[in-house]
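Chain A, query sequence.
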Amino acid sequence: MEPEGLGFLSGFVSALSGLAGAPDAAPPPDPIVPQPGGAVIELRVSGQEYTIAPEHILGVLSGLDDTVGWPQLELTFDDSAAALFAEITTTHQGQEMELVVCDQVLMAPVIQEPILGGQIVVSGNFTQDEMSRYANQISGSIPCDPVAETK
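Chain A, predicted structure.
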C-alpha cells in the first residue's frame, strides 16, 4: 500500500513532465500469459492451503516498482482466482499468509485488509533475477525443478 498522497504526487510529477516537453516514458512491457505447465501458486494460511492453477492467471510481469525501484512481480488473476483471493484475504485478516511458488515461500505477509481487485504485487528483498525466475516459473517458460532445466 503506498503512503497517503504518494499517488497524487506521482501523477502531479508526470503531468509536469508532460508540460515541460519531456519525452514520454516507454510503455510498460506486456505481461507474460502463463502456459500449461506453469507453476501453481500456493497460499497457506491458518493451516489451510489454497492453490491457484496457471490457467487462472491472466498475466505475470516482473519489473521494478515505480516508486522505490525495488524488483517486483505483478500477478493478474481471472474472476474465479480473484474471488478466491478476495475470500481468503477477507476471512483471514490479521493472519499471516504464505505465498509459495515452486516450494519456495516468496513472502508471508500479515493480511491487513481484503484484496478484491484480482491483482497482486509481490515486492521486497528480492533481486531482479529472482523475480524474473519466478515470473518464468509461473508462466511455464522454465520448470520449477532446476534439474529438469538441464535435461
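The first strand starts at residue 41 and ends at 45. The two ends are 42 Å apart (CA to CA).
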